[in-house]
Amino acid sequence: MSLNNYNLKKIKGDASFRTFFRKRNNNQTSIIVYSKKEKKKNLLIYDAINKILLNNCILAPKLLNQNYDNNFIEVNDFGDISIVKELKTTKKNKLSIFKKIIFLLIKIQKIKTKEIKTFLKTKYKIPIYSNKIILNEANLFTDWYVPKIIKKQKVNTLKVQLNKIYIKLLSNMKLKNNIFVHRDFHVSNLMKVKKNIGVIDTQDALYGNIAYDLASLVDDVRIKTSNKLKEKIFLEFIRSNKKVDANKLKNDFEILSVLRNLKIIGIFTRLSIRDKKHNYLKLIPHVWKLIEYRINKNFKFEELKFVLDKYFPKKIRESK
Questions:
Q1: What is the percentage of the chain residues whose pLDDT exceeds 90?
Q2: 159, CA 20 to 30 Å: which among 241, 278, 301, 311?
């Protein structure tokens, strides 16, 4: 059966190759996820990770039907209220919302499932978020953003410099890659479902560093929070994780936040150049501010700060 047989309304999508539709059947609604490009990741693996979350009592989209041959699956509908909307409109203490999110994150981090059977009866083993993968992701900044900003003859020199700095930073990581990582854990990917929080955009999950999802949440590029609130969220996580070494966590958190946000600048630039999705460019000045906040007066980023200040002055950082 093709999509034409359904009563569908296209809804707002994300940065992936997926298209989302709301299907209405009498008073019931569901979501059709369509993806022809990278459909294994966007449909098959997406459902497999959702199944792991559901098996661990975490609210995620549940598969209702699959039509993999025609590039779509049907999942239940969480509605339109994301936690980012709630944060932007609430007059309540925002920290109370983040405390609920931290509780959810810790629950996710307790997942031990390494392998799951997909709806095609194949087995999917969750990969490890190795330093090599993190390095390749950080280099999206040098692959996409740098050539756009820097003169051609200086690009390769800068790429080599940054790559060496990234490797040095990654060699200073303290914690193991043994925790379930959503990999894009921010408030736009958390949905308000009655009194619960539903988790979406799960297909990139890996086993990695406990600090990664926390960095995604605290240094969120899509919503502006005060530095004071950022510190409170971080401290709430430590308070709720008595077994975690706070100093090691802070070290890895800062490194992963900076490398992740350099990656995001690269991704947003790629979305504009390759996919003609230009609306993400307006977020880049804020991403720069997040990077600055982490590297300023922080000895381990001294070399990175010197290079970034040299090639990307304030005028460039504030431009879209």
A1: 86
A2: 278
Sign of the Cα pseudo-torsion (206, 209, 214, 216, in order): negative
Beta strands 179-181 and 72-76 are unpaired
Is 265:284 a contact under the CB 8 Å cutoff?
yes
Burial level of 255, CB count in 10 A (0-12/13-18/19+)? buried
Q: What is the mean pLDDT of residues 152-175?
A: 96
Query: What whole-number distance in Å separates Cα of residue 104 and Cα of residue 187?
Result: 12
Domains and CATH numbers, the chain: 3-76 (3.30.200), 83-317 (3.90.1200.10)
- Would you call 178 helix, strand, or coil by DSSP? coil
- Over the stretch 260-299, which tens digit does the pLDDT of each residue have? 999 999 999 999 999 999 999 999 999 999 999 999 999 9
pTM more than 0.90 = yes
d(CA 136, CA 73): 30
Mean of pLDDT values over 101-113: 97
Confidence of residue 111 (pLDDT cuts 50, 70, 90): very high
| Other CB atoms within 10 A of residue 299 CB | 7
* DSSP-derived pairing of the beta strands 28-34 and 72-76: antiparallel
Residues in Cβ contact with 218 at an 8 Å cutoff, skipping those fewer than 6 apart: 230, 233, 234, 253, 257
The pLDDT score that the predictor gives to residue 26 is 83
Burial 40-72 (b: 16+ CB within 10 A, else e): eebbbbbbbbbbbbeeeebbbbebeebeeeebb
